[in-house]
Every structure is written in C-alpha cells, then in structure tokens.
Amino acid sequence: MRVILIIFLILFLIVSSLFLTTFISKISPNDQDMLLAAELVDNSSTDAVTGDSNINNISDIKPDTISDLEGLGTLENEEGMGPDNTDATEESIGEDGQNNGSNTLISEESVENNIESGNQDNADSEKGEPEQDTVKIYLDGDMDDGIYLGAATYGIGSSRAEELYGAEFKETGFRFEWKNTTLEIEPGSTHFLYIYYYSTKSGWDYIRKEINIPGQKTGNSDIKIFIDHPKEQEAIDELPYIDGWALDASETDNTGISEIKIYLNGPMDFGKHLGDADYGIPRQGVADFFENNNYLYSGYTLSLSDLSLKEGTKHTIFIYAIDSGNPNIFNFEKRDIFLEGKKEEKSLIEATLYLENFIEDNTLNIEGYAIGRTAQEISQDSENEDNNDGSTVSSSSSTTGYSLKRIVFMSDQDGNFNIFSMNLDGSDRQRLTDHGGADQYPEVSPDNNKIAYTADINGVWQIMVMDWNGQNKRQITHNNFRSAYPTWSHDMKYIYFEASIDGDWEIYRINSNGTGQIRLTHNSRGHDWHPNAHPFDNKIIFESGMTGHDNIYIMNDDGSSVSRLFGNDDRRRVPAISNDSTMITYTKYFGNNPEVHYANIQDQNEIRISYNNDADGHSTFSPDDKLIAYEERSGGQENIIIYNIETGQSTNITNSPYYDLDPSFMYR
User: For 376-382, what is the mean pLDDT?
Assistant: First the structure.
C-alpha cells in the first residue's frame, strides 16, 4: 500500500510540473520584462542615493523629468526630452536617426533605468546622421551634455536668407516653439541655447545663444565670490583647474561658506556639474584685504584633468558658494572661457529668440535660417573669423562701405554745451541739439543710426536718444537723480549708464525704449561709473574705485561676475573697448596727471599715446579700430585729438578756443 501511495505522489508531481511549464510558456517576453522591471523598480526604491554626481544620481535631477513639451515641428519630428545632465532618450528615433512612428514621451522610470544601466543606444541615435536637413535645440549644454528641447520645423521660407544669399536659399528657414511646463527657470537667470543643424552636405554644426531671463538675479549679495583662474577674456588651450576665493561678508567669525559647486554652460541643476571644489585653502591676501584673519581659509580650487573642450569654442562656468548655516542661501558668479583655435564653420546658422511670450506664459519662440556649406566653400572661407557663440560681430566693425565718417562730440561754442558732429578733419561742424540745459556725453549706437546722450532736464541729468542727424529726440530716463554717460548694448536692446545716488555713482541698465530700469552695482566703497558696452557680448567694461582707487573692471550686464582687467594697482579710468574686443583704451594716471593709453587685453602691453602733462581722456576707438579719438586739455582749452594706431601720428582736429569734449565716431 505504501508503495502505491508513493507511485501516485510521483505521478502527481510529474503532471503538476508539466502543467506549470505550459502556463509559464504562455507569458510573452514583454510581460516577463514588465515583471522584471517592476521588481527592479521596487528594489531600487529602497536603495539610498548617495554622492554628488549629477549624472548618475536621480536625486540630483531637477525637475524629476521633463515630459509635457510642445514644438512646431511636424508630428514625425516631435521628440521627447531627457532630464538635466543626461543624454536625451528619444523612443521615437531609430538607430538610423529617423522617426519610427512612435511619439511617446519618456517616463521617469525609463530615464532612470537608462542612466543606471549605461544604455546609450537612444542617445547615440539622437547624435546620428538624419536622412534630411534637421535643426535640434538643446538647453544649457551641447549635444552631449545639454537638455534636449526638441526639433524645429525646417524648410520654411526665410526672407532674410533670400536677401543675403539669393532666392535658391529661400526655403532654409526654421521655426521652433517650446512650452516650459516643468523646468524651474529662475527670474534673472542666464541660460544658453545650443542650436544644432544637420546638413546633408556638411554634417552637424551649431551656434550658441545666450538667454537672460528678465528679473532680479537670485543670490545673497553678502556672499562674495572671486575667480582667479580662468581669467576674464583669456584665451586658453585647456582648463586644468578653476580657483579663487569666496566668503560671506556678513559673517565675521568664519568664512560662512560650506561648499563651492561648479557647473559648465548653465546654472545649478541645468548645466553640467563639473564637481565640488576643495574649499578652505589659505588666502592671506583676502584676510588682509578684509582685515579679518577669520577669512584666511577662503580659497577654493577644482582640478579638471578629464575635461575635454573643443578648440575655438566658447563656454561659461557657473561658480556657486553655499552658505554654511543654510544650504538654501547662496550666491554665484559666471566666467566665460574661450578655447584657442578656430571652430570649423560647416554651416551658416542665424537665429532670433523671442522672449516676450516666455515672460507671459513660459513659451520660447525661435526663428532663423540654416544653410549647409560644401567642403570647398568651407575651405575657401576658412580664414574668416566669426565669434564662437555663432553671433556676428557688430556691423560697426566693418572696414568698408562707409560714405560718411564723422565724429559726434560736445562743445560750448555757443555758450552752452550742446552735441555737434563734424568730419574727421574737423570741418563741417553741425549742431545736433539746442535747448536751455547742457547736452553732453554723446554715444553713437552700434548701427550708427542713433545717438544716446545726457541732457539737463529741469535741473536733473537724464538720458536722451535722437537720430544720427539730430531728429526725433526722446527722453529715456525720468529719474530724480543724475543719470549720465550712456552706452549701447551690442544688440541695442539696452542702454547702460551711470547714476548718482546720494553722492555715489553706480551703474544702471534700462531698455532702449525707456522701460525696465534696474541697478547693476551696489558698491559703497567707491564709484562705479563710465560704463562701456562690449561690442558683441552681454558685458560691460567700467571704472570702479571698489578697492580704494580707480581701476578698470568687467562684468556681465546683469551685474554679476565682476573682475578686474589689469593685474596691478596703477590708477586707470574711463575705459572703452575696441570693436573686435581685443584692445582697450583708457586714461592712466601719473600722480594727478591722466594720459591716454591703449593695450591688448590679452598681453596687457600698455602703449601711451598722449604726453600732454595735463588732463587727457575720454578716448574711444573708430568702428574699424584704426583710430583713437580723445580730448586733450592744453592752455585752458579742450580739443579733440585723433591718433592713428598704425602710424602713431596724432592730429588736433578742432584746435578751437572752445571746450570740445567726449568724441564718439559715427561711420555711415
């Protein structure tokens, strides 16, 4: 009996095993993958995420994932977008870079699994070679490190391309619209768009466009950050390290800083996290300057042995100093870096960004054109110098095609200061302003069509704008304090000027239509004044007495990333930068005697051009950077001198009994 029961038990087990095997075989491979993925998700949710890597740790991704994106591309070109600092994953794109019919956006789980597994298949397909011309947009990084926003509609009509290059290039325009529903973009923040274009003739190329979000910059102004290396406006062949110092000036017992975080090409949680710097390096000079030895250990440094940057490209580093008492309190500074060499321009790409709708409903619109170039065209034009972010140097830097060359200046020849213009030889003096108050400090716009100047309106200096011939005058500022010395931004969007606040001069920015005035500097240690705009970047050269005596500084046009251009403590004032951005002219003091100089910004080889032993100054470059005009005081007179950089010859072009001051070139 016992044997029979054992036999029945064996038969039961055999039948049950066969039944279970048949049942499992009915489950599809996809169902098995789902079960396995669910198990992995359950297991991974219990694991604590540690470390600082913003590539491998989901806790560092902000926001959680990017999902609800819209573009103006056709349905087959609308693609998903990866999270911050990860390669974008496009499920609808096959290995050949083409759309396979799926328009599904990526889930948070699929992004996490892709990061943790190191699967780069989709990222590689995104960077592949499409079968047709394509435009793709990335935020705060290039195709390897940026946030993928989507593909533009390409092949639409572009009147600008047709005008510049002919009718055959009319259908090279593109249009892109992005609706931000997830990214927490702060008011006053700076971001960068990388606009990539694939041409079937020449392959991938891109331009880099800066976006300055309206509003006040986030950050605690008590936290001071200085960047020693890399230096401002320095061309480098590599970036092996970043160093400087940071402290919280509101703290006196210690530096008040817990850590330094550094990002590339975008702000915190957007750009590529290069790492956390070593903080606490002795900086005796900082302690001596602030007269507080508790600031001794305020230095930081970050080694970058594995950072690879392509020659001829421009990048921006963001350095954050975090408060030791509250990690939500911080400040940051930016520094542009330029890689030596020349970026090969495989395509002609131009783009215009429209931020009006972004302010209202978080919608960014981009329009432009993109034209591929053959290998022969690239070779023929290899000597042409374009600036690295893809924007063109202001038209004022052209050396040909001018039918009118004049100097705009101020003079008291009629008993009251007014704005005049004259030929370069001093002939044909024409008065452009005439009212009861003084008109002074003229500045010609980059397109040479407008003149900004200072006018005494009811006893208060205000900024005015008029046409190049003195017509259509309009008041820009309506302040109850003196506003003076205007200078135009390279795109004519802004006018920067100095303002006297309780006897202290500070620098302001206002839209060129008279709206949106904001204060850029807050320096009680000395005047910040005499601003001069960079010719093709969003930067301001200015004079400051922040260290106790005057010197020349540069900052972003939101007031951030202030740094001194010259390394020594010689007194320098009233700077102006050349139109190719390689030179700077200014007055340098010998005791109380200011003399005009110019220097190459890179090697800072100073060349003195005036030897008057009296007050000379307010120097400026001609649009072709061949001449420098300045005012010279001699024998109780003020005259305008033109200096030829090539020959070294100086010519007094006014030689009048009047006060002729503040020259500004106007080439039309």
Answer: 53
- Mean of all residue pLDDT scores within the chain: 79
Given a contact cutoff of 8 angstroms between Cβ atoms, the answer to whether 421 and 408 are in contact is yes
Consecutive H or E run containing 22 = helix 2-25
Q: Distance from CA of residue 250 to its chain's centroid? A: 29
Q: 607-615 long-range CB contacts below 8 Å, 24 or more apart? A: 609/643, 609/648, 609/650, 610/641, 610/650
Asked if the model's pLDDT at residue 252 lies above 80, the reply is yes
C-alpha to C-alpha distance for 194 and 149, rounded to whole angstroms: 10
**Domains observed in the chain:** 408-667 (2.120.10.30)
> Is 55 in contact with 83 (CB distance < 8 Å)?
no
CA dihedral 618, 621, 623, 625 (to 10 degrees): 180
Give the span between the Cα atoms of 640 and 628, in whole angstroms: 10
* Strand extents, DSSP E, 458-536: 460-467, 474-475, 483-488, 494-501, 504-511, 518-519, 528-533
Q: Residue written as tokens 């973009």?
A: 185
Question: Using N-to-C axis directions, what is the helix angle for 29-44 and 108-117, rounded to 10°?
Answer: 80
Q: What is the pLDDT of residue 13?
A: 64
| Residue 162 φ/ψ, nearest 5 degrees | -65, -40
- Lay out the sheet containing 637-644: strands in order across: 616-621, 627-634, 637-644, 650-652
User: Which residues, listed in sequence order, are joined to residue 85 by a DSSP beta bridge?
Assistant: none
Q: Is the dihedral of CA 376, 377, 380, 386 positive or negative?
A: negative
Nearest CA to 203 among 375, 442, 343?
A: 375
Q: Which of 99, 153, 106, 152 is nearest to 126 (CA)?
A: 99
**Other CB atoms within 10 Å distance of the CB of residue 484:** 21
Retrieve residue 451's tokens. Answer: 């003149």
Tell me which residue of 583, 558, 667, 662 sits closest to 618, measured CA to CA.
662
Nearest to 446 by CA among 541, 537, 384: 537
Give the highest mean pLDDT range of 88-92, 594-598, 602-606: 594-598
